[in-house]
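pasting N-acetyltransferase for the record, 101 residues
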Amino acid sequence: MEIKVTDVPDRKRYEGNDQDELVGFVDYHFRGDKIVLTHTETESRHQGQGVGGGLVRGVLEDARSRGVTVIPVCPFVRSWIGRHPEYSDVIDQKSRDEILG
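structre below
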């Protein structure tokens, strides 16, 4: 499955699509100049197929390209970052310390 991750500001979320089908999303809001990731959801029939990880990767890549710092509140996002410390540069310092020690 190839997931295309797109920011949808009107809905305050990133959406993941595979061939024009919504497969999941990550909700967010801004706190000052930082983006707070609050919830990740994968459509039930796509769970266990790497959709959540693909979504998080796409969101963090987008944040990195925009120079935006991320505050991960969502437990799934925090867990994923713990397994992928190569994205620590986009995570706010407090969260980085909590997740990665």
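The longest helix spans residues 51-66.
The two ends are 33 Å apart (CA to CA).
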